[in-house]
Every structure is written in structure tokens, then in C-alpha cells.
Amino acid sequence: MTGMEQLMAMVDGRLPAAPISETVGLVDFGGEEGAIHVSLDPEHRHYNPLGTVHGGVLATMLDTVAGCSVHSTLAVGEGYTSLDLTVKFLRAVTVDSGRITATGRVLQRGRRTALAEAQVHDAAGRLVAHATSSCMIFS
């Protein structure tokens, strides 16, 4: 299967979803080739000691949509791995933020590397976090 076919098979239940989705509580995974989105309803279990959603939860969402955006471009027999993830946290997230949605898209895809960006917005449409990710593509 191509990368996009693999991702859609996970959405349809023909392949098992990534366990991190259940661990964190990711919902509404979808998209198209080169652009993927996922959402999360913040809960107290996501909080850090300061009383806001832990940055690691936001980073997980950003890494998921950036990486899966690259995954969606893979040909049959190709794989990928993340080389880096650079995250900027812009606004605190709490349960009062409502459903947050991460969107990722491929900015550049070459033979061996890809560059993707990702954003998380709260229910009011405010940008709460931004990331870029480089991925290595291999056979």
C-alpha cells in the first residue's frame, strides 16, 4: 500500500491505529495526501503541574500530523523517520480551550528528505502551537 492507503486503512479499521492515538486521546484523524489533521478534547489527565495541557501532549499532536503528512506521500515500499521537531508554544491550553485541532502539511518532499509544518488551534481558532519537522525517507 502507499502511505496514504496505509493511513486510511487505519482510519477505516482495516489496520490497527497507532497506539499513541488511544494513549493521548486523539480523534478525528483524516486528511489528504500531503496534509493531515487530528483533534483532541483537553482533559485534566493532560495537565502539567501548572494546570495547563502539558507541552508534550501538544508536541505529540504536532509530531503526529507533521509525520503523517509525510507518511501520506510515501510510495509503496518507502518508509520514513523523523529527524527533528522544533516546537513553539504560543498560548496555554486548558479544558476551557475546547477541542484543539492540529493540522500538518508537507512543505517540500524530495527523494531522501521532507520538510513539514504543523499548527495547533483551539476551538476559537487561535494558534496555540507551531512546529516544523524534517523527515528522512528510505526504501
From TrEMBL:
<dbReference type="InterPro" id="IPR039298">
    <property type="entry name" value="ACOT13"/>
</dbReference>
<comment type="similarity">
    <text>Belongs to the thioesterase PaaI family.</text>
</comment>
<dbReference type="GO" id="GO:0047617">
    <property type="term" value="F:fatty acyl-CoA hydrolase activity"/>
</dbReference>
<dbReference type="Pfam" id="PF03061">
    <property type="entry name" value="4HBT"/>
</dbReference>
<dbReference type="InterPro" id="IPR029069">
    <property type="entry name" value="HotDog_dom_sf"/>
</dbReference>
<dbReference type="InterPro" id="IPR006683">
    <property type="entry name" value="Thioestr_dom"/>
</dbReference>
<dbReference type="InterPro" id="IPR003736">
    <property type="entry name" value="PAAI_dom"/>
</dbReference>
<feature type="domain" description="Thioesterase">
    <location>
        <begin position="51"/>
        <end position="129"/>
    </location>
</feature>
<keyword id="KW-0378">Hydrolase</keyword>
<protein>
    <submittedName>
        <fullName>Hotdog fold thioesterase</fullName>
    </submittedName>
</protein>
